[in-house]
């Protein structure tokens, strides 16, 4: 039995794709014994605050609020161009204008909520529901607007809803950076050697998935809200990209930009520490998949 690592990830296809090999022990675990728990993103954000996991996928909004307690791992993040949340309306032509209008978001600490607060500061009547409930509630008239994430990006038109704005595209226009949605963070109390081993395992798992795409489908189907294989792979193609493999310079700059805008909007304090990305010293290449 290896060193136990309690890790929380989301049920969305990009996570179940990226971690499939590690969950099924198809890559070298480097003496670690991973215990996975799959939760909704706001549940993961709450778990981060409670310190439940050694490593957890979290919204970068939540990571900003707890930057002194964590480090972002270079691998496992969801960010990019064309990946942002969609602001949807129940009525065609409607636009958020004042506090009388109700907007549904997928969690108080999600990056979707952060973007609404940055771009629509007059939208103060924000209610939070599980992401899979946003479109049904919007369709039934329980709210004026909803911020759609995950597979809903590809299916909202089937629900008779109306696009107000792609919040990701607005971010891209105004910052020229990829949008940082969520990342994998490790407790700062984990030492560098252990954190480096965890990071290497995750990088291997992502590499395995990219080389064995079809073999990840059963795991994705088991946890997804949308069961159409084409939609699942469309989701993977959008959210699993070069910055998932490694944040790189551009990804780190995107995190710095998010921190700056959050401070400027008063969402985090002006003296809040920036998000730190763990710098791995494990130079070994990703290991080949086990047969």
TrEMBL record:
It catalyses: cyclic dehypoxanthinylfutalosinate = 1,4-dihydroxy-6-naphthoate + dihydroxyacetone. GO terms for molecular function: carbon-carbon lyase activity. Its EC number is 4.1.99.29. It comes from the Bacteria. Coiled coil: none annotated. Catalyzes the conversion of cyclic dehypoxanthine futalosine (cyclic DHFL) into 1,4-dihydroxy-6-naphthoate, a step in the biosynthesis of menaquinone (MK, vitamin K2). Keywords: Lyase, Menaquinone biosynthesis. Transmembrane segments: none annotated. The active site is at 150 (proton acceptor). Substrate binds at residues 111-112. The keyword S-adenosyl-L-methionine does not apply. Pathway: Quinol/quinone metabolism; menaquinone biosynthesis. Belongs to the MqnA/MqnD family. MqnD subfamily. It comes from Crateriforma conspicua. This is 1,4-dihydroxy-6-naphtoate synthase. GO terms for biological process: menaquinone biosynthetic process. Gene3D superfamilies: Periplasmic binding protein-like II.
């Amino acid at each position: 039995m290896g060193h136990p690592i309690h890790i929380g990830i989301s049920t969305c296809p990009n996570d179940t794709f990226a971690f499939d090999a590690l969950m099924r022990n198809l890559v070298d675990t480097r003496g670690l014994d991973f215990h996975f728990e799959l939760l909704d993103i706001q549940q993961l954000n709450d778990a981060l605050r409670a310190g439940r996991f050694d490593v957890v996928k979290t919204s970068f909004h939540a990571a900003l609020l707890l930057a002194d307690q964590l480090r972002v791992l270079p691998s496992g993040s969801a960010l990019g161009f064309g990946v942002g949340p969609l602001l949807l309306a129940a009525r065609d032509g409607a636009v958020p204008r004042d506090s009388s209008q109700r907007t549904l978001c997928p969690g108080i600490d999600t990056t979707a909520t952060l973007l609404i607060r940055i771009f629509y500061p007059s939208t103060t009547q924000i209610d939070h529901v599980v992401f899979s409930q946003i479109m049904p509630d919007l369709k039934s008239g329980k709210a004026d607007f909803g911020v759609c994430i995950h597979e809903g990006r590809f299916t909202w038109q089937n629900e008779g809803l109306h696009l107000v704005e792609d919040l990701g595209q607005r971010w891209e226009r105004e910052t020229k950076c990829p949008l940082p949605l969520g990342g994998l963070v490790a407790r700062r109390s984990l030492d560098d050697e252990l954190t480096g081993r965890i990071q290497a395992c995750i990088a291997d798992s992502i590499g395995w998935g990219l080389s064995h795409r079809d073999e990840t489908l059963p795991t994705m189907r088991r946890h997804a809200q949308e069961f159409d294989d084409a939609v699942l792979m469309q989701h993977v193609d959008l959210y699993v990209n070069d910055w998932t493999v490694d944040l790189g310079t551009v990804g780190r700059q995107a995190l710095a930009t998010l921190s700056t805008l959050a401070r400027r909007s008063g969402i985090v304090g002006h003296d809040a520490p920036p998000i730190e990305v763990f710098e791995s010293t494990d130079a070994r290449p990703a290991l080949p998949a086990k047969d």
